[in-house]
Amino acid sequence: MPRKKKTDRSTFSKILEQLLEEKKLSLSTVSSKTGVPRTTLQYWVTGNNPEDYAAVKRLAEYLNVSLSFLLTGVEEKAKSSPSTLAEMFEHGSTFDGVVQIKLTHLVPRDAKKDS
Predict the structure, then answer these.
(1) CA–CA separation, 86 and 23 (whole Å)
(2) Contact criterion met (CB below 8 Å) for 92 and 85
(3) Where are any strands of DSSP class E within 11-113?
(4) C-alpha–C-alpha distance, residues 48 and 8, integer Å
(5) Among 5-14, 22-31, 32-41, 69-78, which is the least confidently predicted range?
(6) What are the φ/ψ torsions at residue 9 (nearest 5 degrees)?
(7) Helices (H) and strands (E) in the chain, counts
(8) Are the beta carbons of 104 and 92 closer than 8 angstroms?
(9) Beta bridge partner(s), residue 100
(10) Is the pTM of this model over 0.70?
């Protein structure tokens, strides 16, 4: 199987290499801290895609980045949720916790006549 050219490297590979350089981390250090074999890390840095996503998750946690960012270079956007009850009623939001609660804005009968 031919080796990949440096320009054919995956986004994951490029981001991993960049993070290691920025944080001045060696493959040996990362390996000992994450439990991912140094040879596997080298394999990834040279452009090969990971097959062990549990190892990639440990790597992302150690590098203090999201799994999404490490794999794709795109940070997941946090869903904006209403911060007050008034906003919840305004948007008719749903909260999923132990139980699901659907908030619905109720309009008084007198207000309906004015509309």
Answers:
(1) 44
(2) no
(3) 94-96, 100-102
(4) 10
(5) 5-14
(6) -65, 150
(7) 7, 2
(8) yes
(9) 96
(10) no
